[in-house]
Amino acid sequence: MKTCQHCRSDDRDCETDVGRRDFLTLGAGALAGGAAAAAGLTPSAADAADLSAYAEPADPALPPSTMDLVKGRAALVVVDPQIDFLSPDGVAWGVVGESVEEHGVVDNLTRLFRAAKAADVPVVISPHYYYPHDHRWAFEGALEKVMHSIGMFDRPGPLDVAGLDGSGADFMAQYKDYIFDGKTIVASPHKVYGPEQNDVSLQLRKLRVDQLVLAGMSANLCVESHMREFLEQGFEVAVVRDATAGAKIPEGDGYLAALINFRMMANAVWSTEDAVKRLSALAA
Fold it and tell me: What is the pTM of this model?
């Protein structure tokens, strides 16, 4: 039986899977096009208006951050640096690709990896994998249903890496030298959005780390969920705002939704430029 290029499965209804993927892609376009039409904007003007929604407020009501990284206490945590989110070959690209490119996420993550490694700052990856038994869940939330239907992050089993290389569940190729350097911690997979089901927090505590520079995918789902749990556990968290992105669908702009909560909840919200400078300062 032929394996579907979209769902990478031979035992699910391919037409349904592709249809869902196409629906999501069309939904993303409808969101952007509908907003532009409603505002009477040309595409270029609409793009500028969309990006302006992410700008820092001119007159902020919230107090400024006082977070400073301390050598020995800080780590870089990257969530889901995987093909399904960050590559045009990934199954989620139709809804997240525009946001990923707007913020330069792929290159910005490379800059963060490079800076952390140069400063000998611990790097922890919190990956997302689904195995066949995960597809037997009796109930799922909306995005869980979508991820499972399109075969997102699918692997044949927890001890089976057959077909992993280059698949949607694999890490982006440009990150592999950093991830597979013998020092990076690759945690067990998280299963829904947050780190409650994996060992990221344990690994960080065992390093006596309590300051986190947080980046990865996707903004309002796994990154925000990781941020919330880390805050509840007493970590100091800086989110790198242009090293994450979110889906754009008719229901809303995931990145904008997350950015508002990052500002209200995180200990700091930094640009990649700022985060790299702060990480680099720890190399001295």
Answer: 0.85
